[in-house]
């Protein structure tokens, strides 16, 4: 998730080696009479997670050790996952399992011949416990290589309840209501939105939610694959709708230029800091981590959240991201690797991290009661209830030159758009020119 590029303190780009062993305090629900069928085997697992995420994932590894007897060594790659994995493969010492976020990276690894197909036990568990969209995201050329273990809900709008109370407004359920609510908030003396447009990735998420709700999942998929151009009428319509927010100086704190000078953490601080400068900020469920850890505010009391509202009569969007487990071809402990991914595919592993917090699962077999608070339960239920209408972040599936690089492609084009939302067709033409170049390459 791009949050890691924005908050390097939460995920330093370093490689750390740690070993997870069974311990009584792991929070595991593993059966004490487990067979220990993998005792004596060592498993190597890599992911981008560090800090609190790493500590919570280690609890999952410890639960696997307790259940199977396998020892697990963990490496944190930071944002250099592809580079670290590639160098290990070239050196003839591949990890056994790697947690990968973007479907595009899974495809890249599969195309290079780096991945082993998941075992029938894993794919059967995925069919049983997950909506089909999640297996599709981990499938390349008809073969499933990835099992999504961790999800993110990026269709969430966070708000300051005091500002809402002072303005006499309630969380809206439609985009038109959102605009009306925003203007009422502004009239009360608090600008509606803090927008962190400095990097550009938040703007892609704004667009994706509007487009998914307004145009629907089928066109969303086609635009994701660039099977329709960014000059398509559906894109023009979505940009026009988005311009109703970005083009209204009353709605955005500091206007478009102010948004372009605001990074993501600052946009959260502008709503929930000591002196609020806006009433709402849009971004994913991970906003809660910034509010709790950085601003020391209470989720559900000092900060509340509502789903991104439905646009033009469409369904309310549920768009997000996630992290999938893949098994590297040539792994030294292939049997243990497949058993570990099978473990991740069941509810037991997800429950371990869910209890620790900062996690939601796309696994519908996970009991919502294991989540530590009502807000997290709301996010998890939203992802599960979305089923096959859930859509993965569009820009994360695009070539990096278009959907994932600061100062170019979609990031830059949407930054230019927020600076001047009046030229919708010009913005669409720039997006299409950059997309065509990136997808062709």
UniProtKB/TrEMBL annotation:
The UniProt record lists the keyword Transport:
yes
Q: Name the domain of life this protein comes from.
A: Bacteria
Keyword Transport: yes or no? yes
Q: Which UniProt keywords apply?
A: Signal, Transport
Leader sequence segment = 1-24
Q: Name one Pfam family in it.
A: SBP_bac_1
**Family membership noted in the UniProt record:** Belongs to the bacterial solute-binding protein 1 family.
What is the name of this protein? Alpha-glucoside transport system substrate-binding protein
Give the originating organism.
Answer: Kitasatospora paracochleata
Q: Taxonomy-wise, where does this protein's organism fall, top ranks first?
A: Bacteria, Bacillati, Actinomycetota, Actinomycetes, Kitasatosporales
């Amino acid at each position: 998730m791009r949050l890691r590029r924005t908050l390097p303190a939460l995920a330093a780009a370093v490689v750390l080696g740690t070993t997870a062993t069974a311990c009584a305090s792991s929070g595991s629900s593993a059966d004490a009479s487990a067979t220990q069928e993998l005792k004596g085997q060592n498993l190597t697992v890599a992911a981008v997670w560090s800090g609190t995420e790493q500590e919570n994932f280690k609890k999952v590894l410890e639960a696997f050790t307790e259940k199977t007897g396998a020892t697990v060594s963990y490496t944190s790659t930071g944002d250099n996952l592809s580079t670290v994995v590639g160098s290990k493969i070239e050196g003839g010492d591949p990890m056994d399992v790697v947690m990968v976020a973007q479907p595009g990276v899974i495809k890249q690894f599969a195309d290079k011949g780096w991945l082993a197909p998941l075992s029938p036990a894993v794919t059967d568990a995925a069919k049983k416990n997950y909506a089909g969209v999640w297996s599709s995201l981990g499938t390349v050329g008809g073969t499933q290589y990835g099992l999504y273990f961790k999800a993110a809900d990026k269709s969430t709008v966070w708000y300051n309840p005091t500002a809402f109370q002072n303005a006499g407004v309630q969380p809206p359920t439609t985009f038109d209501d959102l605009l009306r609510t925003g203007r009422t908030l502004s009239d009360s003396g608090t600008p509606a939105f803090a927008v962190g447009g400095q990097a550009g990735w938040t703007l892609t998420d704004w667009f994706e939610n509007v487009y998914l709700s307004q145009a629907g999942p089928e066109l969303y998929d086609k635009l994701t694959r660039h099977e329709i151009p960014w000059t398509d009428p559906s894109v023009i319509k979505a940009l026009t709708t988005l311009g109703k927010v970005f083009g209204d100086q009353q709605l955005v704190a500091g206007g478009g230029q102010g948004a372009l000078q605001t990074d993501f953490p600052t946009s959260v601080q502008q709503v929930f800091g000591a002196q609020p400068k806006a009433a709402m900020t849009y971004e994913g469920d991970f906003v809660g981590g910034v509010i709790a850890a950085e601003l020391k505010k209470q989720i559900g009391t000092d900060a509340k959240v509502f789903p991104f509202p439905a646009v033009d009569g469409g369904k309310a969007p549920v768009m997000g991201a996630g992290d999938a487990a893949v098994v590297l071809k040539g792994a030294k402990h292939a049997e243990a690797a497949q058993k570990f991914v099978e473990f991740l595919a069941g509810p037991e592993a997800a429950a371990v991290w869910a209890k620790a917090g900062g996690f939601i699962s796309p696994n519908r077999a996970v009991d919502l009661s294991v989540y530590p608070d009502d807000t997290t339960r709301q996010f998890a239920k939203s992802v599960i209830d979305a089923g096959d209408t859930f859509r993965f972040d569009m820009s994360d599936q695009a070539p990096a030159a278009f959907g994932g690089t600061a100062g170019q492609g979609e990031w830059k084009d949407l930054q230019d758009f927020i600076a001047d939302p009046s030229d919708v067709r010009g913005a669409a033409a720039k997006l299409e020119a950059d997309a065509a170049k990136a997808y062709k390459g």
